Target: Response regulator transcription factor
Amino acid sequence: MTDLASTRVLLVDGSQLITEGLRISLHRTHCFRVVGIAHTVADAARCLRSVLVDLVVTDFDVPGAGPLRTVRDTAQYRPSARVVVLSNADSPSWARAALDAGAVAYLLKTSPVAELLPLISAAVRGAPATIDARLGSLARLPARMPPPASLGQLSAREFDVLAEMAKGMDNARIAQRLFISNDTVKTHVKAILRKLGARDRAHAVAMVLGESSEAFVTT
Model:
C-alpha cells in the first residue's frame, strides 16, 4: 500500500490545459506530488525512464503512438507504479482494453474533480480495478481480449469505430454518430479488420468482447 502523502505522480495528456488542471487539483490535496508532466508518448517514456513515479495518470490515447502505449511503457519502465486512465470516451470496450493493458482504473474526464480525486486515491491505495460508474457494469464483458499489441495498432478513431461496431451499429449509423462519411467508416473498418486479423466485423467484435460472433450479427 502506498502512502498518499509521498505519492509521486506523472501526468500524461496531449492537452496542457488538462495536465495543468490536474496538477493544481492534486497539489491542493497535499497528498500527491507531481514529479513530471508529459504531452506526448515520447515525453512520457523519457519521464518514466528518468524519474521515480508511483502513479501515472494518462489519457487513453496520447499523441505520438497508438492507444494505451503509455500504460504499457509504465509496465516496462516502472512496473510497481499504478496507472489511472482518464478519458473522454464513455466506451466499455475502451475501459476493458485499458484494464487488460494494466491500468487499475478507467475514469472519465467529465467527472467532477471532487469525484475523481477519491477514486484516484483509492487506486493508489490498492483498490480493485475501478470503472467510472457511468459506464455501468462490465461484468457482462469477458476478460479475454486481443493481445495488447494488436489493440495498440489501432488509431483513436479506429477505436471509436470499433466501439460503435460493438454496439451493433451499421456503417451509416456509425457515420452519423461520429460525424464522418460512410466511405471513411468503410476505410476504418477495413483497417480494423486488417490490424486485428479479423475475418469480418462480427469476428472483430468477438475478439474484443470475447463472445461468439453470432452474438453480434443481430444486435
